[in-house]
Amino acid sequence: MSSGRSAPPLRLEPGPDPAPGRLGLAVRAAAALALLLALPPAAAAVSALAALGLEGLLARGRPRVRRALWRSDGGWSLWLAAEGDPLEARLVRWQPLGPWTALEWRTEGAGRVTALWTRRALGAHAHRRLRQRLHLSSQEKRRHHNRLKGILAKELKHR
Asked: Alpha helix (H) ranges present in 62-116?
């Protein structure tokens, strides 16, 4: 998703934010409560512990974006480790979710990489700039798509 206009690079370095962890804890607590009410006590306890353990293992396997750079050309560079070389990435999807901004990239080395960032994690200024650029790039993409549809319609009409 890149805009036809040149924009200065946007450097994002998310800091710690307890909000996603609290949301996950609330979801797990609700699931555990539902299990406790629906199953016999021993089965509910075993199911809840298994679910928490599985979620912990899955969370460890997901790469965390430690730093991101949205370059002027529209491309992205992602750092998944504190040190090391960045991965080149292409933004395939983004979605504002209340105070969160969800992003999904495709990379060569790590495959699909996602991030869920809040204003607190990025800082108010960087979060606002990110959302503005994402919105503008989406508008530009729609305009480009509509221009291509118009050109195609003209070509088909002349044939």
From this structure: none
| pTM over 0.85, yes/no | no
Q: How many CB atoms lie within 10 A of CB 1?
A: 17
Longest CA–CA separation in the chain, Å = 73
C-beta separation of 137 from 2 below 8 A: yes
Q: Where are the alpha helices (DSSP H) in the chain?
A: 19-38, 41-61, 119-122, 124-158
Residues 6+ apart with CB under 8 A from 19: 99, 100, 118, 120
CA distances from 124 to 17, 41, 121 (A): 13, 46, 9
For residues 74 and 63, what is the distance between their CA atoms, to the nearest angstrom?
A: 22
Backbone angles phi, psi at 69, to 5 degrees: -130, 120
Domain ranges of the chain: 16-61, 63-159
Q: List, in order, residues 6 or more apart from 117 with CB less than 8 Å away.
A: 12, 14, 17, 100, 101, 103, 127, 130
Give 62-71 pLDDT, tens digit per residue.
678 899 999 9
